[in-house]
Design brief:
Blueprint lengths: L1 H15 L8 H12 L5 H7 L3 H26 L6 H8 L2 H34 L10 H21 L1 H35 L11
Length: 205
């Protein structure tokens, strides 16, 4: 089994030798920030209040830490170009690798399909009342979706040298938005507290 694994790893490494290693630690960190930290859950978290911390801790304990441990272990065991696809193919069989790649492809299609509506809604919200019609107009949503697919396709063809900057810029913007939101919240809370008048307690007879 060890000899078969070594031969499979060597075969992948031989094919990957000509590929340039474009992604560094910074790129991977910003990609994780972009994928995990989103704006869609902020309203739900605000509605739940402090109780949503329980779900975050539960997710960290039952999902993120085990996932990180598995990825670190497999990356040290099989540091191959292709990641999870190669791990499944070499660890199990060709069919398992195909199913993993197929699921990743379906996920990408789903995300891109929803991305058109998401981008259209955000643009409409940023413009204001004059653009309320945009998310309800199928031609507008279709046009923005096509532009998004063409842009992402062109970026993918150019390779990770360009593609990684899409994630890097997205991760940096996400951090900037949250830092700005936190700073404005603190400023608002401080300003409100400084103008708050304290009423004396009623006298107790």
């Amino acid at each position: 089994m060890a000899n078969e694994l070594d031969r499979a790893e060597q075969k992948v490494e031989d094919r990957s030798a000509a590929l340039k290693k474009e992604l560094g630690l910074r790129d991977l960190v910003l990609t994780q920030i972009l994928f995990i930290v989103g704006s869609s859950w902020v309203g739900t978290a605000a509605k739940l209040g402090q109780s949503h911390l329980f779900f975050w801790l539960l997710a960290i304990l039952l999902f993120y830490i085990p996932q990180a441990a598995v990825v670190i272990y497999l990356n040290r065991l099989m540091p191959l170009e292709g990641g999870i696809y190669q791990w499944a193919k070499i660890g199990f069989n060709e069919f398992a690798g195909f199913i993993v790649a197929w699921n990743l492809w379906l996920l990408s299609i789903t995300v891109i399909a929803l991305g058109g509506m998401f981008v259209t809604t955000n643009i409409s919200y940023a413009i204001g009342e004059s653009a309320v019609w945009m998310p309800n107009n199928k031609w507008c949503v279709s046009l923005i979706s096509c532009a998004l697919v063409i842009g992402l396709g062109w970026t993918a063809i150019r390779g990770l040298a360009l593609g990684k900057w899409v994630h890097n810029i997205g991760g940096l913007v996400m951090l900037l938005v949250y830092i700005t939101s936190a700073a404005l919240s603190c400023f608002w809370f401080t300003a409100r507290s400084s103008h708050c008048r304290l009423s004396p307690l009623p006298a107790v007879s």
